[in-house]
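Q: What does the assembled structure look like for these inputs?
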Amino acid sequence: EKGGWDSFMEKEIHEDPTAVNDTLLGRFNQAGDIVLDEVRIEPDVFRSIDKIIVVACGTASYAGMVAKYAIEHWVRIPVEVELAHEFRYRDPILTPRTLVVAISQSGETMDTLMALRHAREQGSRVLAICNTQGSTIPRESDAVLYTHAGPEIAVASTKAFVAQIVAAYLLGLYLAQVKNTLFADEIHQIVAQLKAMPAKIQRVLDTQAGTVEATAKRLLDAHSFLFLGRHVGYPVAMEGALKLKEIAYTFTEGFAAGELKHGPIALVEAGEPVVVIVPSARGRDTLHNKVISGIEEVKARGAYTVAVAEEGDSDVGKYADVVFWRPECPTLLSPLVDVVPLQLLALDMARLKGYDVDKPRNLAKSVTVE
Ligand code: BG6
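A:
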């Protein structure tokens, strides 16, 4: 059942490319227009949506944070991302024009279920992004967009995360299509770029696993890991930190790279690892330079620096002790590849420490109590 892999988590990480591919399948026509027939909300209703609130927990909430960057950019409506358990208790502003998007792998997370019930009571529409057919969250939602990642057994979520990002992006592109906020050509181009992602993820798996494993060995005795990223790299940093704490029981913190100087830099200690998600260097945009100078600063304080960076980035090598390389891809799609070495890093650390990677202590695959 593990298909020759030592653990479900290892198998599921290697299914990241298929999860992305299968979630895209059948969601666009020949030309590249988005077709979401299964989502039974009238286009007119979608057209009227003026705000999105994503509610989710854990990994699913980080997928929501990634989607915020893309959907706001493409659709020009505000997207809030709220931890489901915080949402209901803060008197959120919900109207019939608000679309609440509940993201959940299992479809059974009680915190997320309670949040969507509250949203529907307030008259908002709820669309579920879910990996489990017929589970409670899609059943109680107005519409569902299934992620086709296949069953996820390991407690730490991996392939579901990349599939959730893809599903949320399809929703964003569909909204852009019905609201005319992108030209058809632009949508077709993004669809083509999405279709190219499974091969890029596969390339990371094929070429970076050795470097990741050597890094895990090198860092096995580290006391704490810091993860930092900017823009879409920020939720990826949060997700990398979560994976490592969940299964390797390492104290980790993920944060926005821009916050470094506002506090976290005080945590940097000689020899302790800092993992940095580096945006594309193409055009040497300001974000790239700022993140590089963040690496420089932690390096100057003795940190062991690990970067996730785009192939061909000639700046990163100056300050990074080790680099996990990503193939060139559009910034908004980079989380689909950037998270892969971080999933592998957590897996390798846990495995090398002799822990049960599929069933980490104290955690359950789905938490059905509030
Ligand atoms: C946690 C799981 O309890 O619930 C995480 O351990 C998961 O892996 C989170 O991300 C949310 O679960 P779901 O099923 O709602 O996506």
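The longest helix spans residues 197-218.
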